[in-house]
Design a protein that fits this description.
heterodimer, A: Thrombin, subunit H, Thrombin, subunit H, 2 helices, 31% strand, B: mainly alpha
Chain lengths: 262, 155
C-alpha cells in the first residue's frame, strides 16, 4: 500500500474516532434511532424463531405430554378448590376492612410494552416503550401474571432496556410466600437466580414460592419471583442458599408491563 | 446479522448463550484477510453495531475489537496460507480477549462480577468455534473465486 493511501486511511480513521466521540454525547438518540428502524425486522425474526423453536420443542416433548396433561388436571382441581377457599376469605377480608375503616392499597399503574430485542451479552431485553411514554429508570417490569421479570436499567426516548432479575448485577430482598423466611435474590447469569442469606435455622423446601418484599423500595411487594428448585445447606456456612426456578420463561417474554406507580 | 442474532437466535439459547455471529464473521474476515487495508475497518463497523444493540457505551466494542483486530492482522502476516489448525487456537485467543476485556472493564467501572469460566461460557466458546469452522471454508472459497475473477478481469 503506498504512503498516500495509508495517509488517507489514517485520516479516515481519525475522522471515525472523532465521530464516535461526538456521537457519545447523543448516544441515547443514536441508539433510539437504530432501535426504531430495526424494530419491524426484529419482530419478524423473533416470531419466526419462536415458531420454529416451538415446533422442535413440541416434538421433543411428545412422550411427556400425556403425563404432563394428567399432572395439570390434578393441579387444576387443587387450584379450583383453593380458589373457592380464597374467595370466601376475600369476602371476609372486605367486610373486616370496611369495619375497621382501613384504606385499601391502590392498584398498580401499568404500561403495556412488547419486547423488541434481546441483549447480546448482558441478561436484558429491549422493550418498545421509553421516556416519552412515562418510563424512567428503576421501574419494575412484570408479566401479566404479576411475575417479576426485572427493572428498567436505561430509558431512551421510545425504548427501554430491562435488566432481568437473572443478571449478575441484580439483587433484591424477598421472602417465601406465606412465611417469615426472608433473604436476598441474586442473579447468577445464564438465566439462573439464587435465594441467598437464608438463616440456617429456617425450614425451607423445594417447590415453595418466593415473592418480593418492599424492604428496600426497589420492587412492590408480593410479586412472584419463582419457586425453590434445590437447596444448598452446610453447617460450615452461616446461611443457607437455594436455587430458584424463575417464574418466567425467557423465550416466552413478549408482552411486559412496566409498573409506573404503586 | 446482528438483528438475526438478537431476535431469531434468541429463541435457541442454550445455557443462556447464542453464537456470536458478528464476532465470528469479523474474525474470519481478519483471518482470511478479506480486506486488503491495513486498518481493520470491519472491526469498526462490527464494534459499532455491537455497541448499539447492547448496553455498552458507543465506542467500547469498537475500541476493543479494533485493537484486537490490528494485533491479529500483524500476527497473521507471518502465515502465508490460513488453515483450520491455525484458526482454532487463534480464534480461541480472540474470543477470550474479547469477552474478558469487557468483563474486566465493567468490573472496574461498574463493580460487575468478573466473567466465570463456567459451562455457559464454555458453550459460548465452543458454539462460536463450530460456526467459525462452518464459515471458514465457504468464505475461503468465495475469496479465492473473487480473487481469481479479479485476476482474470485485470488480465
Amino acid at each position: 500500500m503506498n504512503k498516500f493511501s495509508k495517509k488517507k486511511e489514517i485520516l479516515a480513521l481519525t475522522g471515525v474516532i472523532l465521530l464516535l466521540l461526538g456521537l457519545n454525547f447523543f448516544q441515547d438518540k443514536v441508539k433510539n434511532f437504530f432501535y426504531k428502524i430495526s424494530e419491524p425486522f426484529q419482530e419478524t425474526f423473533f416470531k419466526t424463531g419462536k415458531d420454529i423453536a416451538g415446533f422442535f420443542e413440541t416434538i421433543s416433548n411428545l412422550k411427556n405430554l400425556e403425563k404432563e396433561n394428567q399432572d395439570l388436571k390434578i393441579e387444576n382441581q387443587e387450584l379450583k378448590s383453593q380458589i373457592v377457599t380464597l374467595k370466601e376469605k376475600e369476602l371476609e377480608n372486605q367486610i373486616l376492612k370496611q369495619a375497621l375503616d382501613l384504606n385499601l392499597q391502590k392498584d398498580f399503574k401499568f404500561l403495556l410494552s412488547y419486547v423488541a430485542s434481546r441483549d447480546l451479552i448482558q441478561e436484558s431485553v429491549l422493550i418498545n416503550k421509553g421516556k416519552l411514554d412515562g418510563i424512567s429508570e428503576g421501574m419494575a417490569v412484570i408479566t401479566f401474571q404479576k411475575v417479576l421479570v426485572g427493572k428498567i436499567e436505561k430509558a431512551y426516548d421510545n425504548f427501554s432496556r430491562v435488566l432481568l432479575i437473572t443478571d449478575k448485577n441484580s439483587s433484591f430482598a424477598c421472602k417465601i410466600q406465606s412465611e417469615d423466611t426472608s433473604g436476598v435474590i441474586k442473579g447468577g447469569g445464564n438465566l439462573e437466580i439464587f435465594f441467598d442469606l437464608i438463616p440456617q435455622n429456617a425450614k425451607i423446601q423445594t417447590g415453595q414460592e418466593v415473592i418480593t418484599t418492599n424492604r428496600e423500595g426497589v420492587f412492590p411487594k408480593g410479586l412472584l419471583v419463582g419457586e425453590i428448585e434445590s437447596i444448598e445447606k452446610s453447617d460450615l456456612q452461616p446461611y443457607q442458599r437455594a436455587k430458584i426456578k424463575p417464574a418466567f420463561e425467557f423465550k416466552n417474554l413478549d408482552a411486559l408491563f412496566v409498573i409506573l406507580d404503586y | 446479522m446482528i438483528l438475526f442474532q438478537t431476535s431469531f437466535l434468541a429463541n435457541f439459547k442454550i445455557f443462556g448463550q447464542v453464537p456470536n455471529l458478528i464476532l465470528i464473521f469479523l474474525f474470519l474476515a481478519i483471518f482470511l484477510n478479506l480486506s486488503s487495508s491495513e486498518i481493520p475497518w470491519e472491526a469498526v463497523f462490527a464494534g459499532f453495531f455491537i455497541d448499539i444493540f447492547s448496553s455498552f457505551s458507543l465506542g467500547t466494542s469498537v475500541t476493543i475489537l479494533f485493537l484486537e483486530s490490528l494485533f491479529a492482522k500483524r500476527i497473521l502476516k507471518n502465515f502465508k496460507e490460513p488453515s483450520l489448525f491455525i484458526l482454532l487456537p487463534f480464534f480461541l485467543g480472540f474470543q477470550l480477549v474479547f469477552y474478558y476485556s469487557f468483563s474486566i472493564l465493567y468490573h472496574f467501572i461498574g463493580n460487575s462480577p468478573l466473567l466465570r469460566f463456567d459451562n455457559a461460557f464454555l458453550f459460548q466458546i465452543i458454539s462460536n468455534s463450530i460456526f467459525a469452522i462452518l464459515g471458514f471454508y465457504p468464505l475461503k472459497m468465495l475469496k479465492q473465486r473473487f480473487f481469481i475473477e479479479r485476476h482474470v478481469e485485470s488480465f
